[in-house]
Every structure is written in C-alpha cells, then in structure tokens.
Amino acid sequence: MTTVDVLVPVRAFQAAKQRLAERLDGVGRSRLAEVLARGTIEAMAVHRVHVVCEDDDIETWARGLGVDVCRVSGGSLNSAVSEALLTLGDVARVAIVHADLADPSDLASVLKLTGNVLVPDRHGDGTNLMLLEPHCRPLPAYGRNSFAAHVDRLGAEARRTGTVLRVVHHPRLGLDVDTGGDLDHPVVAGLLAREGIRVVG
Questions:
Q1: DSSP readout, 57-94?
Q2: In the chain, which stretches have pLDDT less than 50?
Q3: Is 159 buried (19+), middle (13-18) or exposed (0-12) by CB count in 10 A?
Q4: Cα(158)–Cα(162) distance, rounded to whole angstroms?
Q5: Strand pairing partners for 120?
Q6: What is the rounded CA–CA span in Å between residue 177 and residue 183?
Q7: Domain presence at residue 31
C-alpha cells in the first residue's frame, strides 16, 4: 500500500464549532471538536498524518497522538492548507481531510484509490476529503460551494498532468458536523451520547 501524507487542519478546540452555540455550550463544543479530530486522525494510523495548526495546545495534543505537526502562520483555512502544501512539496501523494468527520471508518479505504479524489459533504457543498496525485496542487477553495470550485480546479490540474479525477459520494465520509441540524443525525447523536455530550433543544 502506498503511504499518503495527510494534512488535517485543526483549530483551537475552544474556538471550534461556533455555529453549534445554540445547541452546545462551550465545553460541549470543545469536547466534540476534540473527539471528532481524534477519531479522524486515528482512522488513518497507517499513513503519515500532519496536523496543520497555529496553536501551541493543538501542537501538544497532536504530538501526544504520535503524529507530525505542520505549524502555519494563521489566517484562513485556505491559507493554512496552501502553506502546508508548500511545506510538503509536490512529489508525493497528499490528502487534505477535514477534522470533523462523524464516521471516519472508511478513510483508509478511500486513501487507497488511485488518481485524484474528491469526497463532498452529504449536502454536495463542502469538500471533506481531497486526495492529490504528485504534481497536482490546486489552489484550495474551502468555504461556501467549495466542492464545485474544487471540481473545477482539480479537474484542470488533472488534465494538465494527464491524471484522472474521481468524485466519490460516500455516505460515511460525507457526514461532517457543521450545523445544529447535523447534531440530530443518528450517527452524530449516537456519538454524542457515547461521549456524554449534552445537546440543548
């Protein structure tokens, strides 16, 4: 199996998941962010995971999990990923994986796929996973409608390099936790119950 360098951007847990504030208090949001990030990272133990962060506490946490850390200067998710990609260069297979996957159990199988791969969120709006062939380094476009932007940008890179682009609509990996409505999904609700995280409303 080819080992992939995986970038996992992780922001300070106490500042994460602000859009869940109406249904989770600060302790709950921080705890949920940590649980999701840890589960995502542990699902990729056979690969070289690099936590992308700008925070001392996150760096300490990541090193405690035994993974590498890529410190960035801060700013947006797009600038952080761009900076981390420059650090790794363009000769290896690289994946960018969101740290808030509710069920990351199939990550390893998707990272085995050949070619460039995009996995959208379940709404078809965000990009939960992007797997890049060597020399394919599209400009990140995270944010609203990122999936459509990444299809365009990574498609152009694939044509330039003579590689392929695969879009994988995955029922598990498409489930991230961004909004209050996501907390009601059975998989997320089960995770919250197991971790003792109390939801309001």
A1: HHHHHHHHTT-EEEE---S-HHHHHHHHHHHH-SSS-E
A2: none
A3: exposed
A4: 6
A5: 127
A6: 7
A7: yes
What pLDDT, on a 0 to 100 scale, did the predictor assign at position 75?
83
- Cα 135 from chain centroid? 21
Query: What global pTM score does this model have?
Result: 0.95
Are 170 and 117 in contact by the 8 Å Cβ rule? The answer is: no
CA–CA separation, 88 and 101 (whole Å): 24
Q: What per-residue confidence (pLDDT) applies to 1? A: 60
Q: How far is CA 174 from CA 59, 67, 99, 156, 157, in A?
A: 27, 24, 12, 23, 23
pLDDT of residue 108: 92
What pLDDT was estimated at residue 200?
A: 83
pLDDT of residue 3: 83
Indicate whether 199 belongs to any domain. Answer: no
How buried is residue 192: exposed, middle or buried, by Cβ count under 10 Å (0-12/13-18/19+)? buried
Task: Report which DSSP code applies to 129.
Answer: E
Q: Are strands 94-97 and 127-132 parallel, antiparallel or unpaired?
A: antiparallel
Residue 201 lies in a domain: no
Domain of 180 in residue numbering reads as 5-194
Domain with residue 87: its CATH number is 3.90.550.10
Number of domains in the chain: 1
Domain contains 200? no
SS3 state of residue 43: coil
Query: Which pair of structure tokens corresponds to residue 25?
Result: 């208090």
